[in-house]
Amino acid sequence: MRECNERAVSRKSYVAKARAESPTHNRDTERVLVAGPNAVEAVLDAISRRGRNQGGAGATSLADADRLPNVASVYRVYLEETAGGRSQRLAARAHEVKVPVSMTGKGECDKMAGARCQGVAAEIAYAYADLDDILARPGLVVFLDSIADPHNLGAVLRTAEAAGASAAVIPERRAAQVNATVMRVSAGAAVFLPVARVTNLGRSLQRAKEAGFWILGLDAEGTAVVPRAGDDPRTGDRIGLVIGAEGEGMHRLVAEHCDELARLPMRGRVESLNASVAAGLAIYRLLDGDLFGKDTPAPRRSDR
Dihedrals φ, ψ of 253, to 5°? Predict the structure, then answer.
């Protein structure tokens, strides 16, 4: 028991020191377990490609916010001894960028992360983005109104990042936060897509409108259909898409900040879609011209 307590104290001191040394320590950060091989590989791959290591014997600090905006520090990678050959490759990569690696017993990573992670996890300081920084750039920003299920949040972030959305915004209360489950479900997308956490989503939408964003709320009772980029003159290079909570939809005050409420066409007998599915369809609809036009860019895998 004494040995366990000493290890816990040592670990807390290590984390505190790593946070203090991080170049993003003044941002809204919290410790998160990145669960699953895809998410952990996304972190290590980005570090390896950057070729920078400023953490020394402590955490690996990531100064290039444009390449890995959400990770302030990587404290440690955890690998189960029974995880197989892929864990050995991840261990080798972690050692290359001087991230400490701890081998654990079977099932230990799942217990730490509170989610199934296939024997692979990493402890990071997750840094939420600044809303002003997000609104200073053009793009599609996804505003999530009280999405409570972390699986849905992870799925939305995965689709948004894959489609080329610029960022996401979530409330800090009564909503899912970025955690191990979100990281795992997003398959690493939550590492790359900037996510801002705000105290009041309505005020944040108003700030977005003042920054030139056209705000579209996704609502089953909307009077119009979600437009395709280019079909509506209002769908310029700054769009805010608001997705309501599962079952409840958008809160009234949030809906009042939308410039328009639009729906997805429904021709079958099912009256509604899962929040993450609806969000994915709306995101791809709004980015249709960019994604499916004749000048469609090549996949970005090599850039990561």
Answer: -65, -30
- Full-model pTM: 0.77
Closest to 76 (Cα-Cα) out of 51, 50, 48, 95: 95
Tell whether 241 is covered by a domain. Answer: yes
109 and 61, same domain (yes or no): yes
Tell me the CATH number at 191: 3.40.1280.10
CA-CA distances (angstroms) from residue 111 to 106, 120, 144? Answer: 10, 11, 28
The domain that holds 94 is classified in CATH as: 3.30.1330.30
Distance of CA 16 to the CA centre of its chain: 23
Q: For residue 179, what are the contacts with CB-CB under 8 A and spacing of at least 6? A: 32, 33, 114, 150
Containing domain of residue 98, as a range?
A: 21-127
φ, ψ for residue 55 (rounded to 5)?
-90, -15
Q: pLDDT, tens digit, for every residue of 238-267?
A: 999 999 887 777 888 999 999 999 888 888
